[in-house]
Amino acid sequence: MRNKLLLLFFTLLSVAATLNAQSADPVVFTINNKPVHLSEVYQAYTRGNEYAEEKQSIEEFLESYIDFKLNVEEARAQQLDTTLIYRSQYNAFRSRLAAPYQANNNIEEQFYKELYGRFLTNVEVNHVLLPFDKKNTIFPADTLALYQKAMKLYEKIQKEGFTPDILPVAKTDTEMQMSAENRNGYIGWITPLMLSNNVENAVYTMPLMEISKPIRTQKGYHIVQALNRRPAIGGVDVEQVVFGFPRIPPTQHLIDSVEIVAKREYELIRTGKSTFDDLCAEYTKVFQTGREDCLFGEIRLDSNLPPTFIAAAISLKEPGDISQPILSDYGFHIIRLVKKKAIAGYESMKKSMVEAVSKRDKSDQLAAELRKELISRFDIKINNDSYAKLNNIASEISPRDTAFIASVTNGNDILIDIEGKRQYDVNAFVQYISIKQKESNLSPRQLPTIAIVEQNPLNMTTDILNSYFNKFIWIAVSEYNNSTLEDRNPQFKQAMEFFTNQLLSSEVLEKNIWQRAKTDKEGLSQYFAQHKDKYSLSATKYKGTVILAKTQDALAKAQKLAAKQTTTEGLANAIRKQINKKSTQVRLESGAWYKKENPYIDNKIFGGEAPKANREYPYFAVIGKFIDTPEDYTDVRNAVVADYQEQLQLDWSKHLREKYKVDIDKSVLKNIQ
Fold first, then answer.
1. How many domains does the structure of the chain reveal?
2. Residue 640 belongs to a domain with what CATH number?
3. Quick one: how far is CA 426 from the chain centroid?
4. Domain-ending residue, one of 185, 210, 231
5. Sheet (strand 619-627) strand order
6. Residue 5 belongs to some domain of the structure
7. Which of 370, 441, 429 is nearest to 401 (CA)?
8. Cα–Cα distance between 11 and 367 in angstroms, integer?
9. Are strands 235-244 and 295-299 parallel, antiparallel or unpaired?
10. CATH of the domain at 291
């Protein structure tokens, strides 16, 4: 019943509620002097009749609405609004209803559409990175010398351009070879999410051939140049045969030896003396693998593969085209193009974009845009002097270090003020930092579900503090936005009041009527006895008990006990004491059944097929008798429960009318057309 009411609520919530132009909102009725106004009655009346099969008159509706409001009043009197189940349902609904008021889906949608737009373009890039020292914590002072070095390099590139030896990288440095972000000099064509967010923004927006000033990321300072832009090349499905190095890293002699073999096989294919299929067959025979071992799969510009391998695969033009032998850290590869794949549509790519962004520092850009929009809704003042003191500490002590908190001396300063109604002092922010420190020492499985996990941990101490502060502001403003929705949005307040009343009404009816109607054996028996003449059976029923047993012996014992008992309760007690003392050997199912309602009765009494065996209780017997008229309420339970519930409802309404003082001004109803 409760679920039906909730479903009804969601169906009716969208119905608009307005009054005919009126300057006043008169009182229709009062409950213990609490007024219920015409606007509320009109709204409920309109909502109720919108989907009703038979429309009620306003006079008829008023009586039922008074009963509804009395139920709400009684629910509060019984403190049903404090129960765990009520609070759980209330909070769950409020969270769902509040979500559209808190999030800005337009900003997020626009963000991913702009990102998708970038995926439609590839950029050819020169790049150089001057990395920070490889340590977990970088202080602002550490960056000064590196920045000065980066500026000198920038000036040199401005004059001489990017040259192959600008900052050479050892060929054996696999990480530098694999990652476009870390390689220096010409890195070829790139797609979004291959570079740090700030670097990506530069290469996708700066004029062609312009050289950027140093761009700081958590890895170091980058200088980039966008050489060209072209419509994006999608993915390619390829096959390959690899002439692998027997040892890694290989010696130069080993590289030269393997290259000779790879080039010889390529030349045989090029001149038509052999085929790629022949080479693949020989390759899989030697290594005793299946034909599918030559299948490599899809390659894109952002694949985590050697750049030379990607470039060779992408450059193949027609299915069947074969590359020259390509060197990687693992050997020489001959690649054959299977098919080219176009860039997928926006909707197809969105899920993968969302997942990819969540694992990269580009998520910080989206968070910043969402945070900026949310903050713009309120008058928020930040005490910059108080934050500056914290930033000074962060220039010498990492916020991830417990010594940072011990160094804070301005804890009572107000740090954030929201509309003059809610303030957060430095101590509140420090407490948040303490939580983040504890999280940093936990594994992902140990983190609480509400933890905001840093997908891209920063290493610059002042950046860490700024990141913490931005998240703290987000939490503070989100909490304020959520807790004040009713005060700021009449529509939200009205929806919550309607849901609250519906929930309270259903809770009080569940407790005092619905549950009682199903479980009050004495009441049901009395009601049946008083109204026995109104109930009948549509056909003969078999009334009795099905005995289910684990063993044939247990079944025989139960049948002997049944012969000595006159009631089902007596039989159940006897079985519990004599057969089921240590474990349940016998179960009983009692009732009254029409034909085809119970497989055991059908088999034993009506000559039907043997029922599907119960694995735990495979042996069964039935005892009982035929009845043509109901003997007690259990023989017509559903009908009696429905009638008894209706009687309880009438008695309940009468009780509430007597308990609460209700005054009605029906003259006001003429305002409802």
1. 5
2. 1.10.4030
3. 32
4. 231
5. 586-593, 541-549, 619-627
6. yes
7. 441
8. 34
9. antiparallel
10. 3.10.50.40
28 Cβ neighbours under 8 A, 6+ residues apart: 36, 37, 38, 41, 62, 664, 665, 668, 669
Which residues have a Cβ under 8 Å from the Cβ of 347 and sit 6 or more positions away? none
Q: Residue 545's domain spans which residues?
A: 537-628
Q: What pLDDT, on a 0 to 100 scale, did the predictor assign at position 673?
A: 55
Beta strand segments in 102-159, E: 121-131
User: Letter for the amino acid at 221?
Assistant: Y
Best CA proximity match to 191, nearest among 303, 111, 112: 303
pLDDT, residue 2, reads 45
The answer on 653 and 565 residing in a single domain is no
Question: Do 478 and 389 sit in the same domain of this protein?
Answer: yes
Residue 635 carries which side chain, given as an amino acid letter?
A: D
- Give residue-wise pLDDT tens across range 309-362: 887 888 888 999 999 999 888 899 999 999 988 888 999 889 989 988 988 889
Predicted pLDDT of residue 55: 82
Same domain, 318 and 298: yes
What gap in Å lies between CA 468 and CA 463, rounded to an integer?
Answer: 9
Looking at residue 642, what is its pLDDT?
96
Distances (CA, A) of 516 to 374, 510, 513: 49, 8, 5
Residue 11: phi, psi to the nearest 5?
A: -70, -40
Q: Specify whether 635 is located in the same domain as 514.
A: yes
Q: Name the stretches of the chain with pLDDT < 70.
A: 1-23, 164-180, 182, 287-292, 440-457, 671-673
User: What are phi and psi for residue 332, nearest 5 degrees?
Assistant: -110, 135
pLDDT of residue 502: 94
Q: What are phi and psi of 396, to 5 degrees?
A: -125, -25
**Is there a single domain that holds both residue 444 and residue 457?**
yes
92 phi-psi bin (left φ>0, alpha ψ -120 to 50, beta other): alpha
pLDDT confidence of residue 4:
43
CA 598 to chain CA mean position, Å: 43
Strand ranges inside 531-646, DSSP E: 541-549, 586-593, 619-627
Model's pTM, two decimal places? 0.68
Whether 383 and 469 have beta carbons less than 8 Å apart is answered as no
Query: Are residues 609 and 567 part of one domain?
Result: yes
Token pair of 323 as six digits: 């590359």
pLDDT given for residue 189 in this prediction: 85
The answer as to whether 116 is a domain residue is no
The answer to whether residue 103 sits within a structural domain is no
Same domain for 652 and 624?
Answer: no
Residue 426's nearest CA partner among 450, 391, 376, 374 is: 391
242 found inside a domain: yes
pLDDT (0 to 100) of residue 167: 64
Task: Give the per-residue pLDDT at 143.
Answer: 87
What does the alpha-carbon distance between residue 183 and residue 160 come to, in Å, rounded to a whole number? 19
Q: Can you tell me the distance from the alpha carbon of 292 to that of 1, in angstroms, rounded to the nearest whole number?
A: 58
Provide CB contacts within 8 A for 448, sequence distance 6+.
none
How would you class 92 by CB atoms within 10 Å of its CB: exposed for 0-12, middle for 13-18, buried for 19 or more? exposed
Cβ(197)–Cβ(190) under 8 Å?
no
